[in-house]
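user: can you give me the structure for this one chain? tokens are fine.
assistant: on it. calling the predictor now.
[tool input]
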Amino acid sequence: MINAAKGLMISAPKKSSGKTTLTLGLTSALSREGKKVRVFKKGPDYIDPMWHKAASGYTCHNIDPFWMNAERCRHIFNSKSAGMDLSIVEGNHGLHDGLDLQGKNSGAFLAKVLDIPVLLIMDGAGMNRGAAAIVLGHQLLDKDVRIAGVVLNNVASGRQAEKQSSAIEHYCGIPVVGALRRTSEAGIKERHLGLVTTHENPEVEEVISNLGRTVAENCDLDRIFEIAGVLSLPDAEPPSAEIPDGSRVRIGVARDSAFCFYYPENLDALRSAGAKLVFFDTLQDENLPEVDGFYIGGGFPESFLHELEKNHAVRSQLYERIERGVPVYAECGGLMYLTRSIERDGIRKEMVGAIPADVLFQAKPVGKGYAELRSRDLNGWFNTEGIIKGHEFHYSRLINLGDELDFNFEVIRGTGVDGRKDGIIYRNVIASYTHIHASVVPQWAGSFVTFVEKNR
């Protein structure tokens, strides 16, 4: 028995060409037709997957060929594609953009690893016949990558789209399956880390519906589904339900508009290790839940400074529990929240106050990209003898650090707290600028749950 699901990567010659617009619109349009569509995101991004889940109804999973070997990438894609009609991988950056000359972690590389064709969306502004040269160049750079079709974006008129389509189909031998006009309603608000999260956009359903209608009206959905590659997956099963909670410990997870960056694999890994997850809201809740430990992920605390400071009850309760020795794992935004204060654009607001440091925002990114860490102390709970791979993207830096602070990690690649160290240790807290993925660092969840249990 095999599942004849189909697979397709959506990529582009360069970033900001419309990949997310097309992915969301296509997912919405096909879902309305009754097809089961799951979207995967290449790279470590948190925000696009929120939108993908809203459009498809299914959890979006990250696949990252820098973090994961080819076998792991295929396992995630194949296992989560079971039971689907179409699996879409949204690329990041340009199709051939990678960290080295060979493009070993590029979208093109991942398309070959997963053995799926590419639908290229191209910004056609200011061009006509020359569009074919761009597509042809992408075909020739790596002939093992199957570019199966093109969608034009940002075209000014039907006449311009016709010129580009004729040239691409003649010189490149592949179909143009859609053209999105510059005046289309497609669009999502953006800010310094990318798209605004679904938590903060009250019009998510309307935006996705508009994108679906725009793509359906301007793209050939049947042709796109036709050019997708057939996947041979063993014994298809219905999409799996969320992993049930464990019973060893209770871990409070901050989940709200300020803290919403969590890989689903991280939450599932904690459950599998024996944790019952109890979600709480740092903006609205009047009291913290009764739990044995806390996980505070990344997000946008800088966009909710007033609300976070105003909720004095939650801040003071969290401070008291940290001082009492309750274990906490915090990433990026969570690290910022645990400090004394955050200052942005001259506005300074008090935070939890447990970590003796203050946060200052900069106009440009302080840490951006993949990170590699090495444990500094093998006596702590979060240790590994190898390299921990993660990523960071923050516009803030820590100032006024206390001299008594110790650090869990040595920075091999990236910025961390000061370019050399990351993972502040304070009592039973580890707070780091680096985000990690449980599939890449599998020992993290079990070690944290065991540590929480010992300190209960």
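assistant: here you go. The chain is about 30% helix and 30% strand. The chain has two domains: 2-234, 249-454.
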